[in-house]
Design brief:
Layout lengths: L3 H6 L2 H7 L7 E12 L12 E11 L16 H14 L5 H13 L4 E10 L7 E8 L17 E5 L1 H5 L3 H10 L3 E5 L12 H22 L4 E3 L2 H9 L3 E4 L2 H5 L12 H11 L4 E5 L10 E4 L2
Parallel strand pairs: 5-6, 5-9, 6-8, 7-8, 9-10
Antiparallel strand pairs: 1-2, 2-3, 3-4
Helix pairs in contact: 3-4
Length: about 300
């Protein structure tokens, strides 16, 4: 027996047989749309692009008056391709399920869209296609979205090792916290991280070294909460907490990841500040990076 999902992707003749003559919405579709992306939860998938096959069907509101052959009166096919592009461009994703949710949400943000049927398949993971199919309706609430409400724009502060070790750390954090919601960034600890000679493994080690230093800072002042996901960061900003950014997830999931070399960690903080739409960047005990953000230099 045919289901709504199978009929959504079936030939129009199958839908004509299954559905009565009235009472069903118009549909537009995008079929066999192939793009390449870095996606996947498994380590062998990281750093390599694979083909994704999209098939999307959108139910749309019938026009209230004659179209007059006017493209502005319809839901454009570009709405679908733009939703795909935006979902892949926001960050590196691990799950096809997340990608499908974001594509559907992007389509349904267009007022004329009623329902979106989204099928996404990986073409390079085996002898067959591996994929997911979802159906989402307009007005049914967010799917896979971040917590409602826009987080405040923070102050991002980079603390050098001298600042972390300083007897004046508590007073420095008081001053940072007084400026409003704040996120702290650090570089690697004083002892150098092991060197592997391999770029991919070295990136992981350098990120772990920075995160070790995050916990070193947290141990120095109990107000500091170490977090690594965008959802946690946004929540901490809304709660006005002093947060320390553990960079591994956002850096590894970035579509265009920044450098994490030991000598570039202030620049990494500036990159992060741009991602968080920071009001300004404070640099405590280090030189200012090149950035278009307002920068203040403080002594440790």
């Amino acid at each position: 027996m045919a289901t709504e999902t199978s009929l959504a992707f079936d030939h129009p003749e199958a839908r004509a047989t299954a559905f009565p003559a009235t009472g069903f919405a118009d549909r537009i579709s995008l079929r066999d749309h192939v793009v390449e992306a870095d996606i996947g939860a498994f380590q062998p998938e990281r750093g390599r692009r694979q083909r994704l096959l999209f098939n999307v069907v959108v139910e749309v509101r019938p026009p209230e008056e004659a179209l007059g052959d006017d493209v502005d009166r319809i839901l454009s096919y570009d709405t679908i391709t733009e939703a795909i592009r935006a979902a892949l461009g926001e960050e590196r994703l691990n799950l096809l399920e997340t990608l499908a949710e974001r594509v559907a949400a992007g389509i349904l943000s267009e007022g004329r869209a009623l329902r979106a049927f989204v099928r996404v398949e990986k073409l390079d993971r085996g002898p067959g296609a591996l994929g997911v199919e979802i159906v989402r309706s307009a007005g049914a609430g967010p799917h896979g979205a971040r917590e409602a409400g826009e987080a405040p724009r923070p102050v991002v502060a980079f603390l050098s090792n001298a600042a972390i070790a300083s007897a004046g750390l508590s007073a420095c954090l008081d001053r940072i916290a007084a400026a409003g919601p704040a996120i702290l960034c650090v570089g690697p600890p004083p002892d150098p991280a092991p060197r592997t000679g391999d770029r991919a493994t070295q990136r992981r080690i350098d990120l772990l070294a920075i995160e070790q230093n995050c916990w070193r800072l947290a141990a120095r002042d109990r107000r500091c909460t170490v977090v690594g996901t965008r959802t946690e960061l946004d929540w901490s900003l809304r709660e006005d907490r002093v947060t320390v950014w553990a960079p591994s997830k956002l850096v590894l999931d970035a579509v265009e990841p920044p450098s994490v070399e030991a000598g570039d960690t202030v620049a990494l903080a500036a990159w992060f500040a741009r991602q968080m739409r920071a009001r300004r960047l404070l640099v405590v005990g280090a030189e200012a990076p090149r950035t278009d953000l307002p920068v203040e230099i403080w002594s440790p």
